[in-house]
Amino acid sequence: MNPSNLMLAFLLTLFAGLATGIGSALALITKRTNAKFLSLALGFSAGVMIYVSFAEILVKAKDTLIAELGTRCGSWLAVGGFFFGVMVIAIIDRLIPATENPHEIHTVEEMDGHSEEHKSKLMRMGVFTALAIAIHNFPEGLATFTAALSDPNLGIPIAVAIAIHNIPEGIAVAVPVFYATGSRKKAFSLSFLSGLAEPLGAVVGYALLYRFLNDTVFGFIFAAVAGIMVYISLDELLPSAREYGEHHIAIYGLIAGMAVMAVSLLLFI
To answer: pTM, whole model, 2 decimals?
Structure first.
């Protein structure tokens, strides 16, 4: 394993995870939520992840597995890996209580005065949302890290897409914590720290899998990464994009993300 690739993969995963800090900063320093921009950005992120998952990651996983196991067995394992990734992230979503779901939409305009009882509930919501994001970001970290480790040119756009997706999660933590405490420092810190689960997921996942990594295992993991990213796009990014803005803006972002990803892949042929 090339040490420089390993370091780049980790740094890209760290960048993606800490984008929650960007979300909290936006919530704490601006007076209004730029809903149209967030809608476009989330749609763009979904477009990048969906296109790269089907056009590149799943194809690469299938090719690797077929080379190792033959056409029939390799194809079945690639498809199995894809839906295994979907199942893992779906189970994590099911385990997160709906009231603390990190993808519940929050805006800066909500920052008004509240009663002490309500502040206590908001603080609880902020803490549990941060925990939910941390749990959710763990497999995302491994997905980003694995993609970057396999192909740095592929890892960069994926890391950017995951980072965009993490911005509203930072808002989801910062807004209720700021309501509850009135402290921008506490709100930013908790939001920022929740993003550290992403690089932690990369490190722990790599440490556990390193001894077992061969082309077959790597192909299966890569197929699972595609499943994780497609699920995130369909279950989180697109619904969130539509909640923040108009339906058409989200779709324009989706198509733009696909186009940018397609062109970037063609440039490296």
So the answer is: 0.72
